[in-house]
């Protein structure tokens, strides 16, 4: 081995020894602060689950009949919430009344409900809250072309389909007939679902059918362009809105369906309730924000009957709006959700409460850690003073002829103690204690060597 290699090895050994000295002993710091960290972590976990539980990752949405606007919009909500890892389970239903029953029984967490289907008092009894109105869904009365009436009184004796009782249409249209002085029993009413009712109308087996739906519904789009089928014009629409306040007057503009073919060939006046997003009162507040956000993305644009940004809205609903939804409409999305993904923002929004609550616990515990850390570091040195005291006590009272044998043994023991002390790793801030110990070891050694063979103990 060359001299340079020996020098490098010696240098590495020196560096290794120096590394044993540091400003902070991480191991002692972890041991000293470990109980505090564990206690605070456990308290955070308990508070995390008990103070404000995490929102569920699966939500049930009651939609509507096949080929309805509710069904189409339900699929859009599912796609929007999937971006935030929320699985939206869609439940096909008959319509608004069926949806209200599912909310009441707990079979659904949130649902589309038509205005006029319930009242504020009934909603309070059922434990329901509105997340806002989404869009107008006009009453579409499609008649065969040979039915010439322009007034609802002319429907007497005709075969009109209102849909199943689970939908909101039968109750709604009965109210419309009532203000016209027409009793439901004066019509030949059937209760087919939308798709089979459309087949019956096209086959001529019924004279008309009633929908209440957004124009995006596929059946609406088809019937507006089907020869031999005409849309009833509610020329008294403004009067209907005065008699039934949950209705609004909307106009289907000429050519809106197909400008090239001029469909429809005139403006049509329609009366329209609004579709509302209704949830159980126990729906997690974070999910309310998420649904209102999705509603803005899906329904916020301009449409056949609405201006840009008109919907979603806390207006046009008889069911009281949930506090979280009202805050969202007033102030916009929560601050953190504007810059973070939903789950990360929700985590921080929940944890700040925990941090404040634990401040009273963390501050006192933090005062325990420094003294405990100092004690652990200094205890590495202090325990060797016990060994020194044992050496001194072993010498006391030793009689001839064992004195020389015992002294040799004790000197060897001091060498062993010094060797082990030289390998103690200690932060530089506490190195004075280590050097003091080594000095005291040397003092005891010198006293043993200076003892006269005839003395009874160590010299003072």
What keyword list fits this structure?
rod-shaped; alpha/beta; 13% strand; 5-stranded mixed β-sheet; single chain
Structure description:
This protein is of the alpha/beta class. It has 14 helices and twelve strands. A five-stranded mixed sheet has the order 2-1-3-12-4, with helices on both faces. The longest helix is centred in the C-terminal third of the chain and has 54 residues, at 342-395. The chain starts with a helix and ends in a 10-residue tail after the last helix. Mean pLDDT is 85; it is low at 17-21. It comes from Massilia suwonensis. InterPro entries: TRAP_TAXI (IPR011852). Pfam families: NMT1_3. The chain crosses the membrane at residues 29-51, 351-375.
Radius of gyration: 42 Å
Widest sheet, order of strands? 2-1-3-12-4
Shape: rod-shaped
Count of DSSP E strands? 12
Supply the number of helical segments.
14
Outline the low-pLDDT stretches: 17-21
| Nearest-integer average pLDDT | 85
The oligomerization state is: single chain
Helix content: 40-55%
What's the SSE pattern? HHEHEHEHEEEHEHEHEHEEEHHHHH
Instruction: Provide the β-strand percentage band.
Output: 5-15%
End-to-end CA span: 51 Å
Quickly give the structural class: alpha/beta
**How would you sum up the major sheet?**
5 strands, mixed
